[in-house]
Fold:
Amino acid sequence: MLLTIPAAVTPPWSTMLGFSLLPAVVMIAGAALAVWRAPGPKLRSAILHFAAGVIFSVVAVELLPDIVQHHAPYEVALGFGLGVATMLGLRYFTQRLEKKEEPGAAGNAPAGSAGVTAPPTAAALPWGLLVAIGIDILIDGLLLGIGFAAGAKEGTLLAIALTIELLSLGLATAIELRQDGHGKGRAVAIVAGTSLMLLVGAGIGTTVLRGATGNLLEIVLSFGLAALLFLVTEELLTEAHEETETPLLTLAFFVGFLLFLILGMVA
Structure:
């Protein structure tokens, strides 16, 4: 029996483009802030906690009720399983990319050059890290497209949530590039380049999913549900917990959740 879901009210392309640009611009702004005055680890942990709470709130308040309402267990199981498998596969792939660069970093000094000072050269780009970040941002863009496929309200709230996440990602990436020896301008430019993957992902998501209804939409929303839960539990909170937990840091998660719970109710 086919599942019947009313078509979501899809916002115009100009609206979706504007909300896709917002996280990308904020990510670049975060990189610029990091090279000018890097935030302390506690502040970054608080941002990560807050972002996790915001995204979890969007999942619980907007996506999950829509999925449960239509009682399609087979479609939900398929979409959710595909989402988990995709995120685990991407994690495995990106971790391998990053590990490939680690041995090479220590083996760049030429043999037999003791006592000879090599001329300064530009720092090599950490391609493993950048590819991993690019894939992460591409998935964020696809999730944004899924959010707008569910409706204008869901897409808007998810865009704001991803904006907070990408602020933290822009800060962290710029700091990493500066530690690798890249100049301030180059670090910001590299972050700006990777942020374009968000627009690519959002464009693909909204193009493919525009007008999706019925069983397909239920599978897509379940896929997005799994991917967002993975993002919160295995990425944002994992990184946030690298800093020693304090009551204030924990509180940031619940503030983010409550803020978007209320925003979802009154919007």
Q: What stands out?
A: The mean pLDDT is 81. The two ends are 34 Å apart (CA to CA).
